[in-house]
Specification:
alpha+beta
């Protein structure tokens, strides 16, 4: 599915990133749609995503979810 998006356009990059992020977080559509840029934070090891409210968090306490970043495997010598 990821290859179906045109990565030469901003909309294609956005849609591709949303699909990959949603899969990595196992998030709901409503959680992804509610994300803002300030909800994302890069750390030394991963990406932290703040989910402000979800179906199971009706009090809107929020939750910070770590999302591991992909690492390029080191080629064998």
């Amino acid at each position: 599915m990821i290859d179906g998006y045109d990565s030469a356009t901003l909309a294609g990059l956005r849609d591709r990133a949303a699909l990959v992020l949603g899969f990595a977080l196992m998030g709901r559509r409503s959680e992804l749609a509610a994300l803002d840029l300030e909800d994302l934070a890069l750390t030394a090891d991963d990406l932290e995503v703040t989910i402000r409210q979800s179906k199971t968090d009706q009090d809107a306490c929020g939750e910070v979810v770590p999302c591991p970043t992909a690492r390029t495997p080191t080629p064998a010598r």
